Amino acid sequence: MEITRQNVPVHTGSPDQDGCLLFADGRLVAVLVRLSGEHDPELVGKWFLEHGFGRLDAPDQPVFDDLDVAQRWVISRFG
Question: Which residues contact 22 (CB under 8 A, 6 or more apart)?
Answer without folding.
Answer: 3, 4, 5, 28, 29, 30, 31, 32, 70, 71, 74
